[in-house]
Amino acid sequence: MTKQFNPSWTLFALAISAFAIGSTEFISVGLMPLLVSSFHINLAQAGLTVSIYAIGIMIGAPVMTLLTGRLNRHRLMMLIMILFIIGNLLAASAPTFGILLAGRVVAALAHGIFMTVASVIAADVVAPAKRASAIAIMFTGLTVATVTGVPLGTMIGQLGGWRWSFIFISLIGVIGLLADYWLIPRNLPLPSKATVRGIIRVLTNPQLLFALLVTALGYGGTFVVYTYLSPLLEQQMHWSASAVVLILVVYGLMVAFGNTLGGRWANARPLIALFKMFSGLLVTLLILSITGHSHWLGLLTVLLMGIFAFMNVPGLQLYIVQLAEQNTPHDITMASALNISAFNVGIALGSGIGGQVTTNLGLGWTPIFGAGMVTVSLVLLLGLIWLARPAKDADQNCVQN
Fold it and tell me: How many Å apart are CA 359 and CA 352, to the nearest integer?
């Protein structure tokens, strides 16, 4: 039944949906000044549009995985995209800031389960030897969203009002829904049943727990700054609102470049590669704390941050799957879902800390606190490297014997 579907077209459909999902996650970063003005709130409150969304994904990924584990994959994708569209239309029509946050939560629930399910579908429609490449193709939708979706949504918001940005994303969601309906196979195999015990097994494994903490703190450190990037560029570096749109485009290109490098570097030795990536991010954030008031040096440092910001994502996802295969082979899907949650724990924590820092200390302090989070992740990575050594030594001894 599934052979009548062209795998390339299925991956294309997933990439379109991923583009919509990726655009809505960070759209409020570019709309922050408009939301402050529209609802008469401060930057810390506006930052909740990022942190609340992240919390929705954090809770939604494992919970929705538990609730939907036995649903037909095609039908589940339809429900996911419908939920996503409803959430964004609710945000677009929100009369109050609270309703806007509610719409963000609804869209976030769709986001959390989408990342888990779409990765599995991408792997299922191709030959085993091409699974990693298939997943990478699906994730290009997220990368393209960072490069074009967020800046385009920001520009639409500046021209017609922030509500049109969410309407724009809803329309992309509709296109994704139609593409998924026609191009995703109807009878894909169901994964192993996810259970609450699986969550416990993953969280009680020291290596997996350390890896999840590295994801949360290392990835989240960037969001202390990134959540407030638009006001940082406008208020401290004195770039115009129209220039910020272009800067976000270039920043997205830097992210795409960093993702490509990160994926290649992490293939062979993900732990060592991740340590180098987070070290680069730490140095960049410390430099930004010095150049944050400079028009050009500040901009160059922000773009450098873009290279390192999401470079770690492929390596973190690969490493958590490898650990699950070794330590909890029946819970690989749940480990993947929990890592998606960990990414968003980091976003919520980072944006929340950033909100408190901007309110009490000022925008210029955000890189310092972001660097603090990344420093803790580096210490945890050293612990993981140490824990991995006995297994490596044992393997070498077996080979020698």
Answer: 11
